[in-house]
Amino acid sequence: MEYLNRQLRTFKRQRDFNFRPKCARMNITHLGFTDDLLLFCRGNFVSVQMLYNCFQIFSQASGLVANADKSSIYFGGVCKDDQNAILQALGFTKGELPFRYLGIPLSTKRTNVLQYKPLLDKILNKITSWTFSFLSYAGRLQFIKFVLFSIQIFWSQVFVLPKKVVQLIESLCKRFLWTCSVDMSRKALIAWERLCYPKAAGGLGLLDVHAWNAAAICKLLWNLCKKKDKLWVQWVHIYYVKGRRVWDSQANQASWVIRKILKAKLIFEKVGILEQDVYQMDSFSIKKLYCKIRGDCPKVEWRRLICSNHGAPRWTFILYLAIYKRLLTKDRVAQLISVDSLVCPLCNDRNESADHVFFSCQYSSAIWDKLLQWQGINRVSGEWKNEVDWAVKNSKGRSTGAIIYRMTLACGVYCIWHERNLRLFQQRSRPASALIRQVIQEVHYMLRLQRKLEELSFIPKEGE
Ligand SMILES: [Zn+2]
Known about the structure:
- Residues 284-368 form the Reverse transcriptase zinc-binding domain.
- InterPro entries: RVT-Znf (IPR026960).
- It holds the Pfam family zf-RVT.
- By secondary structure, the chain is mainly α.
- It has 4 domains: 1-96, no CATH class; 113-207, no CATH class; 212-294, no CATH class; 303-455, no CATH class.
- Helix content is 55%, strand content 4%.
- The protein has helices at 2-9, 45-62, 80-90, 117-128, 137-158, 163-179, 192-195, 209-225, 231-241, 256-263, 265-270, 275-280, 286-294, 303-307, 313-323, 330-336, 354-360, 362-374, 384-394, 400-426, 432-456; strands spanning 30-33, 36-39, 72-73, 93-94, 99-101, 104-106.
- The protein has a two-stranded antiparallel ribbon with strand order 1-2. A two-stranded parallel ribbon has the order 3-4. Strands 5-6 form a two-stranded antiparallel sheet.
- Helix 5 (137-158) packs antiparallel against helix 6 (163-179), helix 5 (137-158) runs parallel beside helix 8 (209-225) and helix 20 (400-426) packs across helix 21.
- The two termini are 37 Å apart.
- Bound molecules: zinc ion (ZN).
């Protein structure tokens, strides 16, 4: 490639060659990354031919040949006759914008939803595949984190995602989390905004794509202000900023991406960061600004029950919903539709509610009393609120007792909820003693597994 670079650099001395508009001042003739190559020049026959000949010489010398099926010529402001002459002489097909370069749609106009169809289809295909219909809440949550993470590190870093696309992705993720499908037949149990809070603030730490995107655009503006050594930064300075202050540049003639980057000063100002502050920043953390844009999220008292819980994700997810009282207990369902019976399927005695089902219920309290005894805690089970308060106060820290308590609480709540569903939907039931054994076994197994993993997690020294 260095050979091609050298050859193309000689073009600035050749009078017959015309640079593409807005490329001459920087002598830009090409952009390349691995085996993707873009060549630019003015749309006249002589310049195109010169560029083509140069590439041919490089091809013969290096053996790297352009794949005619994957190569196209893109025109802008070139008359039909000239276009035809160039196409005929070179034998390539005519390409239309937008096209994808390194997987990203390139366009002169604002990108629309249609151009993101491959990304949306990819998510949709995964969600509708049969293997995914067996995932638990925790499994689905993991998948959503993966989708949002890949958007964060790939799409958002490179360029600006349209608002509509962000909304579509979020709504796909939302539906998948709560209904395991693409249709919204059920109300979300917890608002998406809440799920995007950090875990310590009662969320699940999901990515707020809007805020991340805004922070990522701000980084681009910071690059411009600091005149970073990047081709695009120099290019914007030469053609649009033209020695003025970046903060004051409007660039009405520029493409929407450049205008959007320049407008990011409003995002900075909204969170109280002024022009001089941006110039004084020696480094830029998208994450820090993201937190500022999202705003302060007060911590919740029960955070350690979820954040520092070594239990299985499926346990902590159910505990999380239970703490918010969002599990669909009969009293909640009755507010939405008519229900045949409100009686608790565990004790067949009282009515079922979030407060009743886990500790007040005769069946559950028998389980919890035994589990407390197993842990050597000398007290009997109380009401739901008291139990959560007790756990918040007494299971802090990293002592083995506290770790086991948090795990047992999550596993107990999960198993009781599972048993309740088995009774309600599959007419199967197990005695309390079976659940007690199950919880103890699962906590044992999980702790043994973690201890084993800790033993394995060493980093081999170099040369070993
Ligand atoms: Zn009951």
